[in-house]
Design brief:
The structure holds 3 protein chains of 3 kinds. Chain A has 2 helices and 4 strands; from the N terminus they run βαββαβ. By secondary structure, chain A is mostly beta strands. In chain A, strands 1-4 form a two-stranded antiparallel sheet. Chain A has a two-stranded antiparallel sheet with strand order 2-3. Chain B has a single domain (about 30-260), classed as Rossmann fold. By secondary structure, chain B is α/β, with parallel strands linked by helices. In chain B, the strands form 2 sheets. Chain B has an 8-stranded mixed sheet, sandwiched between helices. In chain C, strands 3-2-4-5-7-6-13 form a 7-stranded mixed sheet, with helices on both faces. In chain C, helix 1 packs across helix 2 and helix 12 crosses helix 13 (about 320-325). The chains are: A mainly beta, B alpha/beta, C alpha/beta. Chains in contact: A-B, B-C. At the B-C interface, strand 2, strand 3, helix 4 and helix 6 of B face helix 4, helix 5 and strand 9 of C. Strand 3 (about 75-80) of chain B pairs parallel with strand 9 of chain C, so a sheet runs across the interface. The complex binds thiamine diphosphate (TPP) and iron/sulfur cluster (3 copies). Thiamine diphosphate binds next to helix 5 and strand 6 of chain B.
Chain lengths: ~80, ~260, ~375
Amino acid sequence: MAKIKGAIVVDIEHCKGCEVCIDACPTQVIEMHEQVNGKGYHYAYMAQPDACTGCTNCAIVCPDGVITVYRKKMAE
Amino acid sequence: MSKDLLNEIIQPENLVYKKTKLMTNNTLSYCPGCGHGTAHRLIMDVVEELDIWKDTIGVAPVGCSVLAYDFMNIDMQQAAHGRAPAVATGIKRCYPDKVVFTYQGDGDLAAIGTAETIHAINRGENIIIVFINNGIYGMTGGQMAPTTLPGMKSSTSPYGRDTEMMGNPLKMTELISALPGAYMVTRQAVHTPAHVRKAKRALKMAFKNQIEKKGGVSFVEIVSNCNSGWKMTPVHSNQWMVENMFPFYPLGDIKIDGEFVNK
Amino acid sequence: MGELKLMKGNEAFGEAAIRLGVDAYFGYPITPQSEVIEYLMAEKPHERTGMVVLQAESEVAAINMVYGAAGAGKKVMTSSSSPGISLKMEGVSYMAGAELPTVLLNVVRGGPGLGTIQPSQADYFQAVKGGGHGDYHLIVLAPASVQEMSDMVKEGFELAFKYRNPVMILSDGVIGQMMEKVELFDHIPRWTDEEIKKNTPWATTGKTTDRERNIITSLDLDSFRQEKHNEKLQAKYNDIRENEVRFEKFNCDDAEYLFIAYGSSARIAQKAMQLCRDKGIKVGLLRPITLFPFPEKEINELAGQVKGILSVEMSAGQMVEDVKLAVCGKTKVEHYGRMGGIIHSPLEVMAALEQKIIGGSSNE
Ligand SMILES: Cc1ncc(C[n+]2csc(CCOP(=O)(O)OP(=O)(O)O)c2C)c(N)n1
Ligand code: SF4
Ligand code: SF4
Ligand code: SF4
């Protein structure tokens, strides 16, 4: 069975750590990193990458447009 | 997940979402979690998808989004406080084939610019007005706006808006929907993925209305948060917005294709 | 020779706009200049040349419509009278800051406040010293005839685009309402989209692939850049001072006394000058045609020649301050003028010269 796998790439330096993306993710992929970026914000990252389906929810609610989303149909 | 697997997924051919090229790479001047950024991006998404960026001219207001032209990678003008609909009128009357939109906050549109807003709509200017209603003056530090809710605190209503003394919040969107020049009137939000998708559809309809020269203004209100002005975290401000703003400013279409929507 | 017509000053202004290929006019009625928009509406310029004419909801809206169209590279204009010009000043300051060309007519009436609908020249300070907020200047042209109400539309737009600066035509109720013969210039076609792109490469006509986006704004939150911008504006104003001073001299060669007057006061002063000459008083007249830039050098030179200068304007004395600055103490300077909508007579002007300058000069 083909499985859909997703991944996000966060433009760390432009992330403002607002956490809006966390709520938007249906599979609880995202958390705030314990480290901060150059502006002092904790930034979003995939804490549970396996759960990402590439649904784009996080990216479209991100006010700063810092999330890029990829999705691939995996042959299993 | 292994590094290899990630690398396999993160490949150009698997790209499903990337910020539109019509947003510049300048860091948005907005506070973390502010809906202005999402609203900007949706407008630029639509302009890109409709492939009208060469013919689109935007008008920025005075308010937090005064620098909208730093973020939207199209030709733009910055208007005096509240005057964006007049500026847009001047452009559109001279270039009827271009696509012209204004982007305005509630202080800009519903207080100082009330006359310009109402008359541009009443003349049925074939423009788009995007109205960001966050119930407060964000830029100047959280003062009361015409849209501030009864009882809501702001720096100029520190004990809450007393409607006896300070008047009632203005439902500008309902007000202007009565004008014959209002062709499309809708109220949207951008705090969840579902709302973002809906708001984008509404904006797309607005731009199409203008391209197809359907008579009148397409007016898209976006109820948004101002976490700085409201003194809340971004996530909490969105909850507060759902609980307090939406009951007073209910989301949904008010007028489509010049006709009131029956609810 | 162009077409000759008997017209009101306000109508000549409107006709000149159509003939010059102006793209748009946005205005709001107010006495004594409502004939401008009435004339334009009656002439159906949208049929004659494609010119847009729109009655706005206020002067504030009108000037901001002008801002939008000017920012998009169009030849666009507006007109009003004193109270309306006060309202426009916000937009005018923004246009000066954003360096947008326009021609703006003020058919001045008496103030302050609602004042009177009769003529006045009491808006000199507002026109010449800024009017709105911030360090800026308008180029100010002062017509003294219906002919100039027409010609200055052309000259005004040339200057406005040459310097990317708003131009004000500072007229008054006399010139706006008076009927005179005027020689109209021939029709000039409106700029094509290609000409606009060539003439105003900075304008927001829609981004193209061969350039960065164009932005029209008066804002810069970076103080260093904002100061640079201010310095650039000041350099431009100095250029204008250097190159665009216009004036007219009458009987100055042998003059012992000098009238300085602009607009309708210059016409009255000219008559007063003749009355003086008939009496044997050698009076000359200098009429500034540009009020900014002001003919300082010429006035300073004449100040070395004459025994006294009477500045004549329908106000409490505004231009006289610039005359004094130009004269720099070289000779006696006095002001004469009626207010409240009263037009001084040549006899009154002559009497003022005799009393304030000739009679008073022996005391010095
Ligand atoms: C003529 C004028 N008056 C007042 C101001 C100050 N001012 C700047 S922004 C603003 C309010 C903006 O509020 P809003 O339109 O709600 O936009 P927001 O900042 O909330 O996005 C005010 C009063 C100004 N710039 N110009
Ligand atoms: S929504 Fe965007 S800016 Fe906010 S935390 Fe998530 S990635 Fe960062
Ligand atoms: S793409 Fe969807 S599943 Fe993946 S992190 Fe974003 S919201 Fe979660
Ligand atoms: S002050 Fe309010 S409206 Fe302005 S950027 Fe911050 S959150 Fe947004």
